[in-house]
Amino acid sequence: MVEPNCSQYPIRFPSIEVLTIGAGGGSLAWIDQAGSLHNGPQSAGSDPGPACYPNGGAKPTNTDANVVLGRLGTSLANGRVVLSQQKAANAIDEVIGKPLGLGTEDAAQAIVSVANANMSDAIRLISISRGYDPRDFVLVAMGGAGALHSVALAKDLAIPTVLVPPSPGVAAALGC
């Protein structure tokens, strides 16, 4: 056990090492030359951002998939940022759905499934390589969409408890 830092801020309780997994809302979904779906590590960032953003890009992201699936609302920042489900759907259709022969919702679910698999695999690899069994720990959901993915990850990893802190997006802003 260590007392790690998150960015430059100390975490004041014993815990295992905190490592980040690049699977944020801006992670781009893409298809390789062999026709396999991937998620990240490339990111749309905040500029241009996900396709659903007012000035968003043309490439689909995890956020776009969550918007299409109705897992996210249609606005952020107390309504100051309106998200377009149609723009998200268009990006998913063009880049993922049509090439893979999937409808919009199936393509969006595939994006979420690949993102979840990437996160589960990373948690499994990091934990087991250090001699820890993920089933013996609590999964702490960090990031703006951490709560959207945490239950699926916990089920996949047989982690019995998920903790969603009051403002999980703040941890992502700090680099945790």
Automatic annotation (TrEMBL):
Superkingdom of source: Bacteria
Residue segments, region Disordered: 38-58
Domain spans labelled Hydantoinase A/oxoprolinase: 3-176
MF (Gene Ontology): 5-oxoprolinase (ATP-hydrolyzing) activity
UniProt keyword Transmembrane, yes or no: no
Gene Ontology BP annotations: glutathione metabolic process
Keywords, sorted A to Z: Plasmid
Name assigned to this protein: Hydantoinase/oxoprolinase
Source species of the chain: Chelativorans sp. (strain BNC1)
Taxonomic placement: Bacteria, Pseudomonadati, Pseudomonadota, Alphaproteobacteria, Hyphomicrobiales
